[in-house]
Amino acid sequence: MLHYHTIPVTPFAQNCSLVWCAQSLQAAVIDPGGDLEHILGEVRARQLKLQAIWLTHAHIDHAGGAGELSERLTLPIIGPHEGDQFWIDGLPQQSAMFGFPQAKIFTPTRWLHDLDTVTIGRETLNVRHCPGHTPGHVVFHAPQIQRCFVGDVLFAGSIGRTDFPQGNHAQLIASITERLWPMGDETVFIPGHGPESSFGRERRSNPYVGGT
Ligand SMILES: [Zn+2]
Ligand SMILES: [Zn+2]
């Protein structure tokens, strides 16, 4: 059984999620953007064995703590897709621009590609490449619990910004309609910011992608 717990971190209230295999208590942390002591406190409270860092994309609020956490606990960094290399290279400038603690640059242990899988304990999640918000953005789909961790691709009632360098609105819409919607209307998604929703609810009522 796959479990998860979402922890808002950084001044941007970014939804960092711990995901773990209930049998083994092996865990991965998705998007540790900052507030590492808070995240590690939740890991200890649940007696989880943290094995890996998974990244949806390399914006500071999602990836800002990854380098330090990887160094401290000797954890592999898995993801995002290599299209986000320039955002990783720019983490120091992103830190300065948004008033974050200076982020460490890192080299992912493994880049992710569309239709890859990632495993934690006995649980496997499917990776989809969903460019548009950033060129290297990926999402983590857990069909066994009908959940998807979508980063800044889609929000309850909104979609990701595309006004950054290499952002692409048409590509983002295609990522949502061609790669997220087929996961099913009942699938609940955990966005990078704000409350959870389901793909079905967004298909009905989201002003940006409703009716698609
Ligand atoms: Zn972002
Ligand atoms: Zn974000």
TrEMBL record:
Q: Where is this region: Disordered?
A: 191-212
Looking at the record's lineage, which domain of life comes first? Answer: Bacteria
MF GO annotations: hydrolase activity; metal ion binding
Keyword Hydrolase on entry: yes
Residue ranges annotated for the Metallo-beta-lactamase domain, each copy included: 13-193
Extract the InterPro entries matched here: MBL_Glyoxalase_II, Metallo-B-lactamas, RibonucZ/Hydroxyglut_hydro
User: Which cofactors are reported in the record for this sequence?
Assistant: Zn(2+)
Q: Which UniProt keywords apply?
A: Hydrolase, Metal-binding, Zinc
This chain's protein is named: MBL fold metallo-hydrolase
- Please report the organism this UniProt entry assigns to the protein: Comamonas flocculans
